[in-house]
Design goal:
The protein is of the alpha+beta class and 370 residues long. The strands form four sheets. Strands 1, 2, 3, 4, 5, 6, 7, 8, 9 and 10 form a ten-stranded antiparallel β-sheet that branches. A six-stranded mixed β-sheet has the order 17-16-12-11-21-22, with no helix packed on it. Strands 14-18-19-20 form a four-stranded mixed β-sheet. It contains four helices and 22 strands. The relative contact order is 0.11. The radius of gyration is 26 Å and the shape is globular.
């Protein structure tokens, strides 16, 4: 009798164990470990799953994704992201289209070919899955911008890192287009505020050689503003606005650029290549500036900021922190670079800044300043 009871107990124990195992397996399948990164959302089945190392569009119909190890890839789905929508592991059906996957010989690079072309200025997500030879899989949802094949030669010309709420004067960055083109899909990046400024997505608007584009980095509730994305640049909105300057506004209420030190990068979101850079600090902020070494290295290794003879990445030294009324940073050689570009003697690859290219302008920016 005792043995029979033990057998029943063992039978029930096994049934419960199996039920728990099924429940745990189901839970793991439904709630695999999740990693949220700058590339998007990833679901990892195991710690040894492949990792995404880089992403970039090749043209309007293809996206290249590189992985940490050799993978096998299934066909994926590309969907349009609506305004305010972020990449999600719940497949999005807006204008969904198939993306065929082709894997490189070493298995570490997958090129996804889309059924239709993506559009400049639109946001998309690629939903896909890969697995290594042992079956460790990675499910991912990657956000990306429609490919822009007409990026103009651009430079950072002016930066103001201070603001006044009372006077409705905000921080701003001015770019100058040295050739005609479209600025859709580009971004500005602040090493001091990495999660803020890069949230602003450049609208897909056409610009002309010599045109200045002012990015107002803050908006005020009691002041109207209007993005100038067409040919009419005379809609005078904002304290800093000028009739001959294209005004674009980042709907933001927080500081997103450094007041006494920072590294500002202008880059193409499709491949993260840096188009131009500015490094600056005050003497008092040098120690904090040194903590931005990763961005400084990117700027110099991509040839966008000159290092000195000892290899030091020397920033422009501000006499004091920015002031909305008495101090901003301006580029000395903007007109010379524009002349070279219009003569056909300058490419974006040759744009490389240094501390000697900049100066502190202590003249208040206003509507009449040239």
């Amino acid at each position: 009798m005792k043995r029979r009871t033990n057998e029943k107990t063992e039978f029930v124990r096994r049934i419960l164990f199996r039920a728990m195992a099924v429940a745990i397996t189901t839970f793991c399948m439904s709630h695999s470990s999740c990693k949220i990164t700058s590339e998007g959302i990833k679901v990892l089945d195991e710690e040894e799953s492949p990792e995404i190392t880089s992403v970039g569009t090749l043209d309007a119909k293809s996206l290249e994704v590189q992985f940490s190890k050799a993978v096998k890839a299934k066909n994926a789905t590309v969907s349009k992201l609506e305004a305010g929508e972020t990449a999600s592991l719940d497949q999005i059906s807006h204008d969904a289209m198939e993306a065929s996957a082709s894997v490189s010989d070493d298995g570490k690079t997958v090129v996804y070919e889309f059924a239709h072309e993506t559009k400049v200025g639109e946001r998309y997500q690629l939903f896909g899955e890969v697995a290594d030879s042992r079956g460790n899989s990675l499910t991912f949802a990657l956000p990306f911008d429609g490919h822009n094949s007409r990026v103009p030669i651009l430079i950072i010309e002016e930066v103001q890192g201070a603001y006044s709420k009372d006077k409705h004067r905000c921080e701003y960055i001015i770019l100058t287009a040295l050739t005609d083109g479209n600025i859709g899909g580009l971004e500005l990046y602040s090493a001091q505020y990495p999660s803020l400024l890069s949230n602003y997505h450049f609208p897909p608007c056409e610009v002309k050689a010599g045109e200045k584009i002012m990015f107002h980095l803050r908006t005020f509730e009691d002041v109207d503003f209007e993005n100038e994305t067409d040919e009419d640049l005379a809609r005078d909105k904002g304290e800093w606005s000028q009739a001959q300057v294209r005004d674009l506004f980042f709907e933001n209420s927080k500081k997103c650029v450094g007041e006494s030190y920072d590294i500002i990068l202008l880059r193409n979101k499709s491949d993260m290549k840096i188009l131009d850079a500015l490094l600056y600090t005050t003497e008092a902020a040098k120690e904090n500036f040194s903590k931005l070494s990763e961005s400084a290295e990117l700027a110099t290794t991509q040839g966008k900021w000159n290092s000195d003879s000892q290899g030091n990445r020397s920033p422009f030294m501000l006499e004091g922190k920015f002031s909305y009324s008495t101090r901003c940073l301006r580029r000395k050689n903007a007109e010379g670079l524009l002349k070279l570009a219009m003569e056909g003697n300058l490419s974006q690859n040759k744009i490389c800044g240094s501390k000697s290219d900049w100066f502190e302008d202590k003249t208040l920016y206003n509507k009449d300043r040239k």
